[in-house]
Amino acid sequence: MNRRILLTGGAGFIGRRVAQIMTSEKVNYTAIVRPNSDEKRLQHLTGAAELIQLDLSDIEGLKNYLANQKFDVIIHIGALRGGRKFSEKAYYDTNVVATEQLAINALQNDSHLVFCSSVGVYGAIPNELPANVMTSFNEDNYYHYTKIHAEKIIAKFMLNGLKTDILRPAVTYGVEDYGFPYTLTKLVHRKLMLLPKETVWINLANIEMVAEAFWRVANREYTGGSVYNLADKEPVKLNELVDFISERVHGKKYPSNRYINRNIFAMGEKLAEKLHQENLHNRIRLISRSWFYDTSDLYRELSLKGGETIPDFGVVVDWYKRLKGVK
To answer: What is the residue-wise DSSP string for 123-136?
Structure first.
């Protein structure tokens, strides 16, 4: 049976890979993309999807578009990611109000809404480890605040019959993304990465697994709302990942003189907070404290392959080496 599928965020890191899966499956779908997007970012969509030029922060435009549209499945991945230079209104409209409009449309049309949230709802560093789907929310920055409030809106609509599943990706790694994994690789390559002497465990998410999870949830028969943490099956020690990167770019382990006491990271956190450097504050926390998640339901219920961060992270390092001409 042909289904009408709407995808938001199809030009982004996760959405792009989900779109590629649908194209390979010969699925007909509609993709909302930001007006004036770089044509290179839309190449995988051109000819494969019906493109709707619409910014999710344009709430009136979104309302007008949705007024006469009915979809069987809405895969809502589009959002403003944390650390970008947008106003709080832009973040709120894109991440919260647009989600509300899509939830209203899904409820009115008995559609299945698959929503991309974030493990950031637990805060950069969760209050318990491993964080599970019942771990308390922590509004430690504005991006996390918007994802939390989007989830709360969805939960309200679920009480009225909205069919929805919520997926919370961890920091996701793969090629063509310039976020935390790329920055980590660059710092290790330049030997500028400082590490705590204490053991830190981190839990990244392979983009291939993340995209496959979205498609499996969107493609299965709806049996009731689920919430999943999307991350690699097991966390890794940060120092072991750094050594892995270093051996791949330098042929040897990372220098031992780059390890410092954790109290220095704490001082850096306070300074970044005082200077209102939210992005820097989060990155200091991500390399000085442990963060990992309970993914047992994810792998059991979706029958996903549990990849391993080491060696899977090698795709990022190899991509970085190609970009920088590193042999």
So the answer is: -SS-SSSSB-TTSP
Contact 58, 66 (CB under 8 A): no
User: 147, 121 in Cβ contact below 8 A?
Assistant: yes
Q: What's the confidence (pLDDT) of residue 254?
A: 98
Q: Which two tokens stand for residue 293?
A: 């998640």
pLDDT 10s digits, 5-33: 999 999 999 999 999 999 999 999 999 99
Cα separation, 120 vs 171, in Å, equals: 9
Q: pLDDT digits over 83-112, tens only?
A: 677 899 999 999 999 999 999 999 999 999
* Residues whose CB falls within 8 Å of the CB of residue 97, separated by 6 or more in sequence, listed in order: 59
| Closest to 79 in 3D by CA, of 162, 177, 182, 10 | 10
Query: 46-78: string of b/e by CB count within 10 Å (b at 16+)?
Result: eebbebbebbbbbeeebeebbeeeebbbbbbbb
Model pLDDT, residue 249? 97
pLDDT at position 261: 94
Concatenated DSSP letters of 277-297: -HHHHHHHHHHHS-B-B--HH
Q: Output Rg (C-alpha) for the chain, integer angstroms.
A: 20
Amino acid, res. 287? I
- pTM check: above 0.90: yes
Domains, the chain, ranges and CATH?
5-177+203-233+292-306 (3.40.50.720)
Average pLDDT over residues 55-76: 97
Distances (CA, A) of 277 to 84, 87, 263: 11, 15, 19
